[in-house]
Amino acid sequence: MAGSVVRFDENDVMVNEFVAPAVVTTKWSGEPAFVNSLRGPYPNITTTFEDDTPIPLDVLDEIDALHARFTQEIPWQGGDFVMIDNTRYLHGRRRFDDPRRKTYCTMSLANF
Predict the structure, then answer these.
(1) Which helix (H) or strand (E) holds 82?
(2) DSSP sequence for 37-54
(3) Bridging pattern class, strands 14-19 and 32-34
(4) How far apart are alpha carbons 67 and 34 in whole angstroms?
(5) Does residue 112 carry a pLDDT above 60?
(6) Of 36, 40, 31, 39, nearest to 20 (Cα)?
(7) 24, 25, 18: which is closest to 39 by C-alpha?
(8) Cα 52 to the chain's mean position, in Å?
């Protein structure tokens, strides 16, 4: 079943599980697309198939290599902002320090 589940294991340690399909049909084109819920800035996670067998590290490494191959940097300038359709792009960010930075984030579903 897809979604997030928080539970306690046999040692009373809280476990947060996120289950999601790896391929979905896109809303706008109706085409199958890889949805990357496997990689990201998630420390200490175990990534498994539906039957709980671990996804091999070489598969995860290949996903990382494809990310690097297709990543396009945004040449940011002061005052810039970006709007991304999450149904079409895998997005991310790189760490940086700017104590003067102001962030505004809003999310919504397209209703058209």
Answers:
(1) none
(2) -S-SS-TT---B-TTSPB
(3) unpaired
(4) 12
(5) no
(6) 36
(7) 18
(8) 20
Q: What is the pLDDT of residues 16-66, one digit of tens each?
A: 788 888 888 888 788 888 877 777 666 677 788 888 898 898 998 898 898
Q: Are 63 and 55 in contact (CB under 8 A)?
A: no
Separation of alpha carbons 43 and 10, rounded Å: 22
Residue linked to tokens 């399909």: 21
Assess contact for 5 and 19: CB atoms under 8 A: yes
63 class by beta-carbon count within 10 Å (0-12 exposed, 13-18 middle, 19+ buried):
middle
Spell out a b/e string for 18-44, using b for 16 or more CB atoms within 10 Å of the CB, else e.
eeeeeeeeeeeeeeeeeeeebeeeeee
d(CA 104, CA 85): 17
Cα-Cα end-to-end distance for the chain: 28
In order of 82, 96, 102, the CA distances from 99 in angstroms are: 20, 10, 9
Dihedral pair phi/psi, residue 67, rounded to 5°: -55, -50
